[in-house]
Design brief:
Shape: globular
Strand content: 15-25%
Number of helices: 8
Order of helices and strands: HHEHEHEHEHEHEHE
Bound molecules: S-adenosylmethionine
Radius of gyration: 17 Å
GO molecular function, one term: tRNA (guanine(46)-N7)-methyltransferase activity
Function: Catalyzes the formation of N(7)-methylguanine at position 46 (m7G46) in tRNA.
Family: Belongs to the class I-like SAM-binding methyltransferase superfamily. TrmB family.
Helix content: 25-40%
Pfam family, one: Methyltransf_4
Structural class: alpha/beta
CATH superfamily: Vaccinia Virus protein VP39
Pathway: tRNA modification; N(7)-methylguanine-tRNA biosynthesis
CATH class: Alpha Beta
Length: 236
Amino acid sequence: MNASSDTPPRSIRSFVLRQGHMTAAQQRAIDEYWARFGVDYRAEIIDLNAVFGRNAPKVLEIGFGMGAATTEIARRLPESDFLAIDVHGPGVGNLCKLLAEQGLENVKIMRHDAVDVVENMLADGSLHGIHIFFPDPWHKKRHHKRRLIQAPFVAKLLPKLQSGGYIHLATDWEEYAVQMLEVLNGFPELANTADGFAATPAYRPETKFEARGKRLGHGVWDIIFIKKCFNAQGCT
Ligand SMILES: C[S@@+](CC[C@H](N)C(=O)[O-])C[C@H]1O[C@@H](n2cnc3c(N)ncnc32)[C@H](O)[C@@H]1O
């Protein structure tokens, strides 16, 4: 156990914490707006309706990067609430700034490893949707173990989803796209909404990493599965 935390250290993480440069404006946005938009990590289940102050569908986003797509989706879907998680400080500052500038109140931000949040903070059946857009592809074979979309993590995520809820993944790395499809196809409680890869839905704008991938000549693959009613006792 790590003396400063109550969770054991995991050696294989899906990110490397870089000392990215935090601009003065990003730091100011955190100082000014964290109390309004931020949710601190704690190893206990939270009531998301209480956190957002209303009963509305909740969507988890893992790895929002600089937060521009998150902000745009929250603007396009005002009837949903978004719990957006990333570990990258400058992105957290940028998202605080964007939300304040646009006066959006349906996004809360966490700066923590989303794997811990899923394991320790989210109640079963609390999510209507999960967005994971352009997760780090970890190109080298010896790094594939760091990829977020692997069966053991998806097995932890799925109980958090309500029946009828969805998981939406996107990537610009074809071989990872194929892995994503294989992993999700391996869960009998999930149904693919498309025959293989899905069309990009209207709510998802181009993300920063997507634009970068396209400049490099990469394709883009969206994957959207729905959680079936899998419980013989009756599903809502
Ligand atoms: C390649 S970037 C994509 C960012 C954004 N979705 C986009 O498309 O522009 C992946 C992001 O996921 C974040 N990330 C990776 N693993 C994470 C984890 N376990 N918890 C939270 N964030 C994570 C990284 O910090 C990074 O910002």
